[in-house]
Amino acid sequence: MSEESFDPVALIHQYFPDADDATVQYILWNKTGWPCFFQSGILSLEGQLEAYKAALDMGMDVCEYCSNKVNPTESTICSACKASLDSARAARRRPA
Description:
By secondary structure, this protein is mainly alpha-helical. The chain has helices spanning 8-15, 21-30, 41-57, 79-93, and strands spanning 61-62, 69-70. The N and C termini lie far apart (52 Å). The model has no long low-confidence stretch (mean pLDDT 84).
């Protein structure tokens, strides 16, 4: 698949062949950086799909903000992203 004929839906089906349309859209918009953090074409999306599939195969999920693995029964974000968000929240609360 070349950059000119790039089809993200077809690429998702390579990793998740039984995915229905709703699942494909969920994976594309919620489990990858598409389109906001989509920087380097096919390889970027492939890497994100590989990370997501590997996490699922281990009974895990991926962080909402990065590709770190998380236990879906515990959180939807990893500890590193949680720490960054908590730090940013705390900084906003400090008086100038």
